[in-house]
Amino acid sequence: MNSQGMRKRFLIGFGCWLIIGSCFAQKKEKISIDLQGALELDHISYFREIANKINTRNEGTLVVKGIVNFDEEATFKTVIESRKDLQDPFRDRLGYVREAYFHFVDRKMDVRAGKQIVNWGTADMYNPNNNINPIDYTDFFELDDNQLGVWMFSAKRFHKDNKYTEVLISPALPTLAVPNPDSRWVLGLPREMPNPLEVEKMLPIVYGYEDLQPDYKDVGLMFGLRNGISANNWDISKSILVGTNYTPSFANSVQGIDSSGVQIRLRPVYQRLYALGFDFATTRKSLGIRGELALKGLSEPNSKKGIATIYYEYTIGIDRTFSQLLFDKNVLVILQWVRQRVLREQQPVDNNIRFFLQNALLLRTEWQFNYYSGFTLQTLYTLDAQNIYLRPSLKYRVLDGLTVTAQADVLFGQPNGFLGQYLGNDRWQVSLKYDF
Amino acid sequence: MNYLLSIITLLSISVFAPTNTDKPMSAKDIMAKNKQLTESGDQAVNFTLDLINKKGKKRRQESIWTYLTDGSDVRYSLFRFHAPSDVKGTGFLSIEYPAKADDRWLFLPALGRSRRISANEKTDRFMGSDFTYEDLERVNLVDYDYELLGEETVGGQVCYKIEGMPNNAAIKKVSGYSKRVFYLLKDQYQVIKIDYFNKKGELSKTFFGKEIKEVAGSTSPKIHYMEMQNLETNHTSIIHFSDFKIDTGIATDAFSVRALEKI
To answer: Which residues of chain A from 46 to 75 reach within 8 Å of chain B, CB to CB?
Structure first.
């Protein structure tokens, strides 16, 4: 069956499921609707401009979240996002459905059907086991709300003694969210090439993407299984996932050439992902301790066959909360160590986005001065490549729900490794957000 | 995290006369009576916290708080925040065991999953308020010496005046106070005022409990208004309780990570 046919069948089946679920729920006649959301305005400027690149951002985002409670047993949730970037059309989204799913609750089981975001793993900043949803890579340093929903069916069964089993299956093929070829995060693309007919003359190159939609012959159904337990001050789980690798990778293909220039299309490379995972979280007095381990394999590019890449990742982190928990004077410090070891890989590893951490320390410090203002510093230090990334962020609550944030992304260190390619991409950002 | 339960336990007492009118009750007896009368099973209540700074500027947090104490003295508590809008959906679950470390999880909607968190210090402020975790935790009477200082009128009502001081080094070390002075309504055993003295022996905070009203399903009236005045910072915190649901049969399942993450 081709991907379009499969997709159509899935969507029809899913629509039926939603209608049946809705009818079932409406019988109870206890419907309540809750609407909330946020409006955000963002400006970003890079300290140093680069010719032919997008050097600024002026963006508005409206997120509306709707929750319909039919009764205690059935809920529908949707999150719809509209985003407009005046400089970068790749970031535009109009009425994008981030999530839309029904949630049915039984005495011992939760069932969710629809477009959803599922988070696995317990680590705070980098989660080797969180591979279910694609990441919005239109901006590599955009860390907030960067997960994209996937149409899927998920179920969680609760057993005795705080044990649970979680299963998910998705026939949907989410596309990569990739940066504009003119983005500051796309490097190494020459802007002109010699004219084959007149070698002394240069032809400009225009880049674009081929169809980003994957095909079932390249990837396929995603399914995952997870078992976990909460006991004796520990949360522990183990998981297996067969899905899709969402870190962007591309091959070039020349689309056309004439006297005016060359059109090059970047062809996405999709790979099957196989992941075995383990994670835990515990507390010891005032310390939180969390860790994850994942063994991963990737298929041959654009093929479900073979294993081209094998690697494992592990992370251990400790955190300490000083003062109280929420809303007011508070200091939270999280320190995390990440290690990635590549056992088999055909491509160079050092500049590969997938292995950009390799041997890294991450530090996050949140300092809430009072109810109205706070400071956050995120730090990443790659021990081998010696890259340092800093994100200082100052937040001020003007009114309840209205927040202004000023922050910067700063990279320095050695020009090695994946992050070392982006030295000079330092930038500052101001945003105004209203939650309603 | 059943500190609030504890203070309500301490404060919400039904109208009972002393069991033995021939012999005057000791301070410890009065405190024990207070504790005995206010133990309850499960409860869900709307919880509004107003924080007022020294300039009179007020901000408000709204949540629903549910708690349960089971037969083995394990205490379950779940907070679900509704306001302000930027913390809406945040949840906080704690399970407090008598003889082992507590379980605590925080659910932040933006994170999309629960996060196990460590315990707080007794002296930490509860949700930015002038109540510390110590103010709100359940009191183990054996850890304190109580002395009846006499009777005193508070707000036109005659009260027992009782001084409570920690009697062992462990409590003295973790406590933020050198002593507390309780004012309990003589005819109801309700605590309507507490003076808190810091480690230097200075009066640092004063608590007032007001709006003592009957609640459907409860054998004892409940305090609907709690005010803590911080004399060191001139800051005041007020907790309003409303829409009590008492002993409705909430099961321990309602205090799970599953429940915490429910949309």
So the answer is: 67, 75
